Amino acid sequence: MRPRSIRPSLADARSAGRGVRHRGLTLIELLTTLALAAILLTLGVPAFNEVMARHRVTTAANGLLADVHLARSEALKRGVRVALCTGGETGSGFACSADGDWHQGYLIFIDPDANLAVEDASEVMRAVAGSASAPVQITSDRQGIAFLADGTADIAADSLVSWSLCISGSASHAKAVSVARSGRANVATATCP
Questions:
Q1: For 122-159, how does the pLDDT look when each residue is reduced to its tens digit (9 = 90+)?
Q2: Which candidate, 70, 127, 71, places its Cα nearest to that of 104?
Q3: Which of 2, 12, 71, 177 has a CA positioned 20 to 30 A from the CA of residue 110?
Q4: 107 and 87 in contact (C-beta within 8 Å)?
C-alpha cells in the first residue's frame, strides 16, 4: 500500500466540496436585508425626532423652572426682592428688554427699587443666554416677575404668571411654566399659541 500524501489531491478537494454549503450572502439575501433596514429607518426616524422634540421642550421647561426656584429661594435667603426678566447683556452691562421673547435670554437679579431694571451689574445673580434661532420658543405676556423677601410673587392675588414653551413649527409638544401669587411654580402640558 502506498502511503497517502499529506497534501490532498485535486480529486479529494472536489469530492470534499460536495454537500458542503459555501458561506456568504446571495444578492437576494442582501437586497432583502437592505429593504428591511430601509423600512425600519423610515418608521424609526420620525419617532426619534418626536422623542427629541419632546426632550428639548422638557429640558427647557425644567431649566426655566429651576431658574424661577432660584429667584424665589434667593429672595427668601437674602431677604430682598429678586426679579427675573427677559433681557441679557448689552454693550454697557445688563438690561431687561420690553419684549416677551424669553428664548432670547433672561436675567435673575436683585431689584431693590421694584422697577424691573438692573441698576448695578453686581446685582445680577444669573444671566441665561438665549438665541433667536433656538429650537424651543419661550414666550410670556409679561416682561418679568419679582419675588418678595417672604417668597411670594409680586403679582395680583388671583393671577398667574406663565410661560409657554413650544418647538418652532410644531404645536404637538408644548409645556407651560406657571407661578402663583404664593410663589409656587409648576410645569404642565400646554398647547402652543
A1: 788 998 888 766 788 888 888 899 999 999 999 888 88
A2: 127
A3: 177
A4: yes
Cα–Cα distance list, 53 to 24, 42, 43, 58, 173 (Å): 41, 18, 16, 9, 7
Task: State the chain's mean pLDDT as an integer.
Answer: 83
Average pLDDT over residues 21-38: 86
Closest of 113, 61, 104 to residue 83, by C-alpha: 113
Q: Which residue has the cell 485535486?
A: 10
Q: Residues 6 or more apart from 79 whose CB is under 8 A from it? A: 149
Q: Can you tell me which residue has the cell 410670556?
A: 140
Mean pLDDT, to the nearest integer, of 153-180? 86
Paired residues of 165 in beta bridges = 138, 175
In the structure grid, which three cell numbers stand for residue 54, read together? 419632546
Start-end of H helices in the chain: 10-17, 27-78
What is the spatial order of strands in the sheet that 185-189 belongs to?
Answer: 136-139, 160-167, 170-180, 185-189
Is residue 118 over pLDDT 70? yes
- DSSP helix/strand/coil, 23: coil
